[in-house]
Amino acid sequence: MLRETKRLKTMGYRAIQLTSAAMMMGGCLAATAGHAADQIIVGFITQLSQNQYFVDEAAGAQKVADELSAKLIVVDAGLDSDKVMSLASSLATQGAKALVVVPSNTDVGPALSDIAASNGMVLVASDSPLQDSAGKPVPFVGLDNAGSGHQVGEIMVREFAKEGWPLKDTFFANVEAPFQACLDRTDTAVKVFEDANPEWPTANVIKVPYKGLVAEGDDAMRATLTAHPEAKYWLIASCNDEGVVGALQALESRDFPVENVLGVGLGATKSCLAFTTDYIKNGFRASTNLDPSAIGGGAVRVAVDIVNGKTVPPTTFVPTPELTIDNFQSQLHC
Predict the structure, then answer these.
(1) What string of H, E and C letters represents the secondary structure of 72-104?
(2) Which of 148, 211, 223, 330 lies in the 20 to 30 Å Cα band around 305?
(3) pLDDT grade, residue 31 (50/70/90)?
């Protein structure tokens, strides 16, 4: 029996988790009843809905859906690729004409595009690019992941040059989550630093795996510090602010000298906290201001435009201006 899913309000973030829970209980989500016959239904498959970035992204998607008089159904696949497929099929049965997906694994592209095509749904990728079963790029809205990683790397190179730390004693904490968008960012940042410092020992790059949240970054960095007591200076990059803030918390817990730490965030999801918290604000040198609500909203707009027969660009990148302790208050709503 179909269940009527509560419509997400712009700030009704918890609805994401409730919707996902309903799926797991075996019930279908929103029925097509209760919407106008010509109303476009957009399915939005997100991941890690407890993470503030994805919460804000879904809120932006809802705002634009409201503006366009479209019906938005948001579900959370976590990091489970198989669940992405089952949710896509479920959304099709609910009458979705467009499907926006925030994939944790880009390998889902071909199978996902087949599901969309067989059900007459438009497919749009958000955050991580996808290819369809013919190898053709799916319309994409999001961050230029490699470009953003390059931006972080350049900031790291610039700030490191001011310090004069011995290369052999400088270690790079690459705080990375196990999905492609994150790896594209962090791998690029590391490469930019390596290219700028060719004499730096690459063995000093330490992968610090986590799953996107501050507490996980803290735990992972504590283990890293235990494994590498020889590090006298730490560089920290991650695919979001959370990884850098978590690593800085771990360093603080070990009384590591903050003047020997250089962290660069990404996305500004924790920049208000980072730039106003003792210890962390001295090690958190900069971040990049990514507006996830603009990505979510942009993806919905592109999806609805395609359904309406409009021509859209194959790729829409959202800009990421640099944030520092000197300008963050004028850029963010802290």
Answers:
(1) EEEEECCCCHHHHHHHHHHHHHCCCCEEEECCC
(2) 148
(3) very low
pLDDT tens string 137-171 = 999 999 999 999 999 999 999 999 999 999 999 99
Output 5 or 324, whichever has higher pLDDT. Answer: 324
pTM: 0.72
CATH superfamily of 145-289: Response regulator (3.40.50.2300)
- Which amino acid, 158? R
Domain at 15-143+291-318, CATH class = alpha beta
- Assigned token pair, 86: 């089952």
**Is residue 44 within 8 Å of residue 74, measured between CB atoms?**
yes
Q: Domain extents for the chain? A: 15-143+291-318, 145-289
Model confidence at 21, pLDDT cuts 50, 70, 90, reads very low
Say if 15-143+291-318 and 145-289 have the same CATH topology. yes
| Closest C-alpha to 162, from 15, 297, 285 | 285
Q: Which residues of 129-154 are buried (b: 16+ CB within 10 A; e: fewer)?
A: bbebeeeeebbbbbbbbbebbbbbbb
282 CB-contact burial (10 Å; exposed 0-12 / middle 13-18 / buried 19+): middle
Distance of CA 160 to the CA centre of its chain: 26
pLDDT tens across 50-59, in order? 778 899 999 9
Dmax (CA) for the chain in angstroms is 67
Given its phi and psi angles, is residue 327 left (phi above 0), alpha (psi -120 to 50 degrees) or beta? alpha
From 149, 111, 155, select the one nearest 130 (Cα to Cα): 111
d(C-alpha 219, C-alpha 225), whole Å:
10
Provide the pLDDT for residue 79. Answer: 84
Q: Looking at residues 217-228, what average pLDDT do you find?
A: 98
